[in-house]
Write a structure and sequence with these properties.
homodimer; alpha/beta; TIM Barrel; two-stranded antiparallel sheet; 15 helices
């Protein structure tokens, strides 16, 4: 085992990353809301000793109202789903996306702390600010239609939201539950405190309703690649799941992220960098490409529509055998959508002069795509890991559950044989898997600083 | 089996209804946040073929900040906890309390629909408007400290909140998932629709992110006994969990509730009335009273403080061997707290001229209390059920898990032998247990009205 540890999560985006995943012969179109499907996927991930299962989210159908759906949506509430998986698994980390734009910090602090208790230390919150324009229409009040604020406003709110959540997680000392049955004293005097937060967005008294959870603080992930996202990650995140389409981009991103981390007074290696890795896997390279062709034929023109939606361009502007539109390659200011991810896809297409068809064999919904044999997938992982560009990946198989099963049965053994990945879980918490310390309570941190 | 069915839920209020539950020799003060404890209790309830497990809630510690806790709080987020229990049980209904005052309807609609999918049709939402004054301090925005609105405002918001949630639950038709893998058509054209709600409090476009759930609509419970609560229940509720301290009160309440139900155009028996039933159970009456005395001695003066807090009076105004204070008995207007429940406790004390000590052997935190042998508890249940005052009870054992285990092992067999209660589950959904129909989709309801 090398001294640096490889970390692997799995991003379960309904039936798979490929637009035609639900059409694959083995797939059932109703799996996306079926508990048996989700439990099977989680247990497969645990069989592969993966660090965590990751759920993306947005509170809308992410498309104009009235249009029929071309694929299963991100349907289930992530926290409800992760809580269901908590009692069906024993070691797997459980990472859920929740936007800071449509919730109250008290509720989110309480919900992730509850999940951390009930999973015995496996909860993580992936903080997003919501670039989905349709979500805002579901959260208006009275006469006022909620409108998407500027990116800067969203990130200011996110930072304050996280401050409140962390203060609430610290509102009980570690030893607050005295439990003196004889004297009838349940909690220790002075050990449960208000937070009295007064800020630009929130006004929260506290304390939280429950004791500090097994991890001290549930793990914080951050997924955005824009300057605002990078800054938020450098300040708060334990892990980052941002798209990286090429090794050069990933290296530059890692360097910038680690610099920001240091600028916020944190250790340079405080953050686990785990971008998405999408893959189509076969027992041989030829078999992988056959599987890829089969899926692409099922998806047909929808692949192009998916790319257009990600780049916020009109599908009519894209042609299979031409480069991206010139105005896009020339780098007009990006104004909507996931800024960082979009830039990275456009950069890749520009630098390597790819046609749309070639680009679609290199990235899938913003993320690096690898098509090949188990050895080739393992090589792709090892290359970026050894280069120091990443600490691991968030796996995004083409189709669930078979894509993940193939990975666990054929790629994980190679990574283990190369001394890159754990043979069994050595910890019971997600912080343990990620080689991160439990967060000590407020009083202990003050003592440590004074000592 | 009689034609009317008895319905039994269990209200798991942290370690038990008795203020000294956590001090009982068998109890562990840390159970309230321990998944193993909750899973054990849920499986015991399922062994007893109970209809459901019920979780009360408030997003605060429900006491002035800074004071140490005298008992375990309602710590865990109810939805997170119920979702964890969903995959650890197979038949038990899962009822969670969520206030309409601190959440967005889109999130709540989505969360309960998700739980209904993941539990395969066992989810229920207990709607409250929050009388807890401390909760408001956790949900202020910017400079503005959130203040508790009037009861009327709270109930107007609750009604509109429920309207939005139900419209979102109806935003997909039952057959919306077409799943045509050959043509690549995932959803049926025109089967997923916006709700375009514009009201006093909310402005929500929709549709929801997920298909209609197994029950059509998750079950709606309502817990308040004030006029506003009764009205909300008559209009929307499938089940009611409001405190009733005497048979006379329960009969009057049932009559009023059924009249309101009819006034809203619903069938007279549309609602399952299931007030709380607290009990201290022994193999003989003497043993039950010994257990009661033992618990009371552990609690000491805290029993009196608990009663004072429920009645919103200064503990110094209460004396063990005197009646309640005259001003309270004379029925000054109630202004805070849970109005209906408080009135019912004061009425009982007035009508039967009880001292504080006698009152505390008849009610516990607002609910009917019975102390006795298995036969006596069964008699107490049968009496109110046969009188038509209730459809069943929400059980509130003195101490968990032993109080529930005693009930399941010794009272349930008596109720079964008397033909009052099911011998095994005959349905897989909570609506099935409660003898309520699945709610058909919007289109089917329109067709039924036209036909």
């Amino acid at each position: 085992m090398s001294t640096r540890e490889l970390h692997l999560g799995v991003n379960v985006l309904s039936d798979g990353m490929h637009p035609a995943a639900w059409q694959y012969p083995e797939s059932d179109p109703n799996w996306f809301s079926d508990p048996a499907f989700w439990i099977q996927v989680a247990r497969t991930a645990e069989r592969g000793t993966l660090d965590a299962l990751f759920l993306a989210d947005s509170p809308s159908l992410f498309q104009p109202p009235g249009e029929p759906l071309v694929a299963p949506p991100l349907a289930l509430d992530p926290i409800v789903l992760l809580s269901t998986l908590a009692s069906a698994t024993t070691h797997l980390g459980l990472i859920g996306t929740v936007s800071t734009s449509f919730e109250e910090p008290y509720n989110i602090a309480r919900r992730f702390a509850s999940l951390d208790h009930l999973s015995r230390g496996r909860a993580a919150w992936n903080v997003v600010t919501s670039s989905d324009p349709y979500a805002w229409g579901n959260f208006g009040h009275g006469d006022e239609v909620a409108e998407q604020p500027t990116r800067a406003q969203r990130y200011r709110r996110a930072a304050e939201f996280i401050d409140v959540v962390r203060a609430l997680w610290d509102s009980w000392d570690d030893d607050a539950v005295l439990g003196d049955k004889i004297r009838g004293a349940f909690s220790r005097v002075g050990s449960i405190n208000t937070i009295d937060h007064r800020g630009e967005f929130f006004n929260v008294t506290g304390p939280l309703t429950l004791p500090r959870s097994p991890q001290g603080h549930p793990v914080l992930f951050q997924a955005g690649g824009s300057p605002g996202g990078l800054d938020l990650a450098g300040r708060y995140a334990d892990g980052v799941f941002a798209a990286q389409a090429s090794l050069a981009d990933a290296l530059r991103n890692a360097d910038e992220l680690r610099s920001r981390t240091v600028a916020y007074g944190r250790p340079r290696d405080a953050i686990r960098i785990m971008p998405g890795l999408s893959f189509v896997l076969g027992s041989t390279e030829e078999e992988a490409w056959r599987r890829n062709t089969e899926l692409n034929e099922l998806a047909g023109e929808r692949r192009l529509a998916f790319l257009a939606a990600q780049l916020s361009v009109d599908p009519a502007e894209l042609d299979w055998d031409s480069p991206l539109p010139k105005w896009l390659l020339d780098g007009a200011e990006t104004i909507g959508g996931s800024q960082g991810a979009r830039d990275i896809v456009v950069n890749l297409a520009r630098r390597e002069q790819l046609t749309v068809r070639q680009l679609l064999d290199r990235v899938i919904t913003w993320h690096r795509l690898v098509i090949g044999s188990p050895e080739q997938i393992a090589d792709a992982i090892e290359e970026w890991f050894r280069a120091g560009a990443v600490d691991g990946f968030n796996l995004m198989p083409d189709v669930f559950p078979s894509g993940l099963e193939l990975f666990v049965d054929h790629v994980i053994p190679i990574l283990r044989a190369r001394g890159l990945f754990r043979h069994e879980y050595r910890h019971s918490t997600l912080r343990g898997h990620l080689d991160l310390e439990r967060v000590p309570d407020r009083r202990s941190r003050v003592t440590a600083q004074a000592g």
